[in-house]
Write a structure and sequence with these properties.
- The protein is an alpha/beta fold.
- It folds into three domains: 215 residues, FAD/NAD(P)-binding domain (3-Layer(bba) Sandwich), CATH 3.50.50.60; 111 residues, FAD/NAD(P)-binding domain (3-Layer(bba) Sandwich), CATH 3.50.50; 114 residues, Enolase-like, domain 1.
- It is built from 13 helices and 22 strands.
- Strands 1, 2, 3, 4, 5, 6 and 17 form a seven-stranded mixed β-sheet that branches. The protein has a five-stranded parallel β-sheet with strand order 8-15-9-10-11. Strands 18-19-22-21-20 form a five-stranded antiparallel β-sheet, sandwiched between helices.
- Strand 5 and strand 6 form a beta hairpin.
- The longest helix is centred in the N-terminal third of the chain and has 25 residues.
- It starts with a strand and ends in a 7-residue tail after the last helix.
């Protein structure tokens, strides 16, 4: 029987990064993955393929709507080749997952393909083409999450689909109904809207992106409506029925009136749930919460002292980069180091266009906590760079402590917001004030000038509005 210092169950961003860091720190490491490719949801059916389709559809939309204005004339009709678009997406996935294979070999990490199941706290049975058992001094559970649904919805994965199926459709929907106005639903909704589908969003809460700052939700709602999205908030879906190639969704609006939506595809995007199927955690003495997540302490240690858990399978935001930080955290903890994660400074991003990015506290959270704060906000349309690229929608908003001027939260909608948010994370990591950021030189013309201007606006000193 092979013996290891640490075994990781799950090869998503948290799992494979944990494995690499453990190996770097001198531990004999194994990683167990039930699927034939490494990378988990993120690389195979999540972050990477969805961004590939978002980029491809963005190119198409630019060609159809904006090239002429830029002085680019294309003779003939511009057409979507969905088959090629999906094939390119898959090639990006294949290259990325292949890169993880390389990293495992480079770091001398043993890879087992099969379902990992605890025999006890130190022994794991791996069921694949053949059954293997290994012994691990420590184990990290990194089994991630799966798309959630509603109890009355039957997912046939043909017309009533999850994000996984939405990434490999063989035709562009005529009318895509998206149940859920969160990150995944809006991103995939925008992919197919750009390609010609009618898109209707049905959201239970009173706004899209309900966990983000309300100003962000309001701005993106306005932008998406301008892009001809049909957005229905405060709607409680109560039935989804398929009739041949037609899908009927019934919901109650905020007045309690029944509303019917009819389309040819329904994307169920109501969040994700922790995935622990087949783990047999009870045999290892690992406790789950009432919601099915693995229970951990501040060291990400489970109720079994030699078993840890990270990523979507535990509490907190379901983000690939959060999982990576936790993977490194556990590896360094096992090595006797004293790592630290500031969960307040893990950014959240929505890859629509314009992009949405956020870090730190929202206005709602600051109000609830009774924190006296000030707001600096700057519109993207006031930037020379935005006018040059025709990306005028959105703003940057900085929330700062009213007495100390320390930056408490940064929220933005705009072109390249996903990249710009890193500046806010760095500033907040070093507990910068709004004035600190406003006094740093920002290259001109750039989108990041909006961050400087918002910092100036927090102290009533904005220069360009």
């Amino acid at each position: 029987m092979s013996k290891y210092d640490v075994a990781i169950i799950g090869s998503g961003p948290g799992g494979y990064v944990a494995a690499i860091r453990c190996a770097q720190l001198g531990m004999k490491t194994a990683i167990i993955e039930k699927y034939s490719t490494l990378g988990g949801t993120c690389l195979n059916v999540g972050c990477i393929p969805s961004k590939a389709l978002l980029d491809s559809s963005h190119h198409y939309e630019d060609a159809v709507k904006h090239f002429e204005e830029h002085g680019i004339d294309i003779p003939g009709e511009i057409k979507v080749n969905l088959k090629q678009m999906i094939a390119r997406k898959q090639s990006v996935v294949d290259q990325t997952t292949g890169g993880i294979d390389f990293l495992m070999k480079k770091n001398k990490i043993d890879v087992y393909v099969g379902v990992g199941s605890f025999k006890d706290a130190t022994h794991i049975t791996i069921t694949g083409e053949e059954t293997t058992e290994i012994e691990a001094k420590n184990t990290i559970i990194a089994t991630g999450s799966k798309p959630s649904t509603l109890p009355f919805i039957k997912l046939d994965k043909e017309r009533v689909i999850t994000s996984t199926e939405a990434l490999k459709l063989k035709e562009i929907p005529k009318h895509l109904i998206v149940i859920g106005g969160g990150v995944i639903g809006l991103e995939l909704g925008q992919v197919y809207k750009r390609l010609g589908a009618e898109v209707t969003v049905v959201e239970y809460m009173d706004r899209i992106l309900p966990t983000m700052d309300s100003g962000i939700s309001k701005e993106l709602n306005k932008v998406l409506k301008k892009q001809k999205f049909k957005i229905n908030t405060s709607h409680k879906v109560k039935s989804v029925e398929r009739n041949g190639d037609e899908v009927i969704v019934k919901a109650d609006n905020k007045k309690g009136e029944e509303v019917t939506f009819t389309g040819d595809y329904v994307l169920v995007s109501v969040g994700r749930h922790a995935y622990t199927d087949g783990l047999n955690v009870e045999a290892a003495g690992v406790k789950l919460t009432e919601r099915g997540k693995v229970e951990v302490n501040e060291h990400l240690q489970t109720s079994a002292s030699n078993i840890y858990a990270i990523g979507d399978v535990i509490k907190g935001a379901m983000l690939a980069h959060k999982s990576e930080e936790e993977g490194v955290f556990v590896a360094e903890t096992l090595a006797g180091q004293k790592p630290h994660i500031d969960y307040n400074l893990i950014p959240g991003i929505v890859y629509t266009w314009p992009e949405v990015a956020s870090v730190g506290k929202t206005e709602e959270q600051l109000k609830e906590a009774g924190v006296d704060y000030k707001v600096g906000q700057f519109p993207m349309r006031a930037l020379g760079r935005s006018r040059a690229s025709m990306d005028l929608d959105g703003f940057v908003k900085i929330l700062a402590d009213k007495s100390t001027d320390e930056i408490l939260g940064v929220h933005m909608v705009g072109a390249r917001a996903a990249d710009m948010i890193a500046e806010a994370v760095v500033a907040m990591e070093y507990r910068a004030s709004a004035e600190d950021v406003s006094r740093m030189s920002h290259a001109h013309p750039t989108f990041t000038e909006a961050i400087k201007e918002a910092a100036l606006a927090a102290n009533d000193r904005a220069l360009h509005i």
